[in-house]
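Dear colleagues,

As part of the handover before I leave the project, I'm documenting each prediction I ran so the next person doesn't have to rerun anything. This entry is a single chain, and its sequence is reproduced below.
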Amino acid sequence: MAHMTRDPSAPMLADIQAAAARIEGIAHRTPVMQSRFINAEVGASVYLKCENFQRVGAFKFRGAYNAMAALTEPEATRGVITHSSGNHAQAIALAGKLLGIPRTIVMPEDAPAVKLAATRGYGAEIVTYDPSKVDRESLSLKLATERGLTLIPPFDHFQVIAGQGTVALELLQEVPDLDVLLVCLGGGGLLSGCAIAAKALNPAIKVIGVEPLLANEAQQSFRSGRLVPIYNPPTIADGARTSICERTFKIIQAYVDDILTVPDSALISSMRVIYERMKLVVEPTGVLAIAALLTGQARFPGKKVGVVLSGGNVDLKQLGQWFS
């Protein structure tokens, strides 16, 4: 059960509201959608916050733009560095292009070609590495020190978390009386920001994170009270193959009510439902939260349930294999 204690390394509602002001008119205010079919299936009123329509196709743009817009002038002039194989890489690349900030992105040489191409297309410098031999955090820190760059990691960052919290801020502005909020969980930046915003705006709301069954380190950590890392778990939810950090873990402990898991088979069946019933393109990581409802892992009969669809950057060739 959530027990709130103030943590200075965690943003507060005011920080998330400041992030909302920074990204206003630049990040998309994504639609909140409903499906009569899904409502009937799960016996609840489900409100889907569609971050697959966000710039770069994922919620990551919010945190990346907020973190970069909050830099001092000397920091912005020198530039930033990050490490990511996917959506955060694209988000930093686009945000830097819009703000005129140089950015270097450390990406594994086996990153999806579509994500490498998109990141390069936004004008970022890409440094590739062999993930079997090189630790990306160490390489990023080394380059940051050598070049005087500011490191903006994918989720272990105050302003990134504040930016991601604007997802819940917008959802609750539209549907303030939600009973439950279900959020996809990888590194925990989205869940952390959303939980802080949701509990501040509606203290009675239940906030639940959902991660893949084979990557359930946050659930194990949450239940045991200490970080239980799982390295490179075998799941199709590539955005959730990462580990929560000390900062996001502390926020999850303070603000989140529970963490559920779903198997990869449920991600595929949930993608199919979302595609066929709502005509929405969502990636496997993006359907984690809705999969908990559609599989009956989470049941909230008669309640108003908010669900974040976190992104839509799916490899269409892969999709054909999953749906065959």
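The first helix runs from residue 13 to 23. The first strand starts at residue 32 and ends at 33.

All the best with the project,
I.
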